[in-house]
Write a structure and sequence with these properties.
By secondary structure, this protein is α/β, with parallel strands linked by helices. The protein has one domain: Beta-carbonic Anhydrase, Chain A (3-Layer(aba) Sandwich), CATH 3.40.1050. 38% of the residues lie in helices and 19% in strands. It has six helices and seven strands. The strands form two sheets. Strands 2-1-5-6-7 form a five-stranded mixed sheet, covered by helices on one side. It has a two-stranded antiparallel ribbon with strand order 3-4. α4 packs across α5. One of its GO terms (molecular function) is carbonate dehydratase activity. Keywords: Lyase, Metal-binding, Zinc. It holds the Pfam family Pro_CA. Its EC number is 4.2.1.1.
Length: 226
């Protein structure tokens, strides 16, 4: 057996032992408190970033660029894997989580600004992502290096994904939608691995968000207020 798989199975054995008595309440149904939409990246620990160790507590969705949309018969629509917990499990909160140094945003930025190319499967995801970033790329300040541009566009992408949920007819108006960025590159000045709120229900001005949510004011920040 591949040694990597052997190591993974050993880790799973520890997991199974630790979690053996934590599945009793979710044997037949799930009622997660939130659906989180994160980027598919090995550095983004989708459950552990929240300190979650309880099965059934969070419904986690991961894809290239933390997108909430897919292409349907009538065009772009909220993705089924995001919609499912909202429609069928009573979930009333959605959190879109981007991350610093995002490779998907970098790829989309290069495709828009530098005419880069990716393999066909990745291109499909970038084609879904790039239109949401095009206006953001055009609005970037002059003189930014690629890393600075990408981290601004990470926030911009989160804003666009939040807007897609807020404006969708498929999503109940009562759904609370929050946009955030997971930082492991010292961009926001906090601890590595901290989550910084950048958008709540379409509101993205830091001062307005801090006034409205004083209980988490120290966790609200942006690198780009456009």
């Amino acid at each position: 057996m591949n040694e990597t798989v052997v190591d993974l199975l050993a880790g799973n054995a520890r997991h199974a032992q630790q979690f053996a008595d934590r599945f009793d309440d979710v044997q037949d149904a799930q009622h997660p408190v939130a659906v989180t939409v994160c980027c598919s990246d090995s550095r983004v620990l989708q459950d552990q970033m929240w300190g979650n160790e309880q099965p059934g507590h969070l419904f986690t969705v991961g894809n290239i660029g933390n997108r909430v949309v897919q292409l349907g018969a009538a065009g772009e629509e909220v993705a089924d894997d995001v919609l499912y917990p909202i429609a069928h499990t009573g979930t009333e909160t959605a959190v879109v989580v981007g991350h610093t140094g995002c490779g998907a945003v970098t790829g989309a930025y290069r495709a828009l600004a530098e005419a880069g190319s990716e393999p066909a499967g990745i291109e499909h995801s970038l084609r879904l992502l790039a239109p949401h970033l095009e206006a953001g790329v055009a609005a970037l300040p002059d003189g930014l290096d690629t890393a600075e541009a990408v981290n601004r566009l990470v926030e911009y992408n989160v804003d666009q994904q939040v807007a897609s949920l807020v404006e969708s007819e498929r999503v109940p108006d009562a759904l609370d939608v929050v946009g955030a960025v997971y930082d492991f590159q010292d961009v926001y000045g906090g601890e590595r691995g901290e989550i910084h709120v950048v958008n709540v229900g379409g509101v993205r001005r830091v001062d307005a968000l801090r006034d409205a949510h004083p209980e988490v004011a120290d966790r609200i920040d942006r690198v780009w207020e456009y």
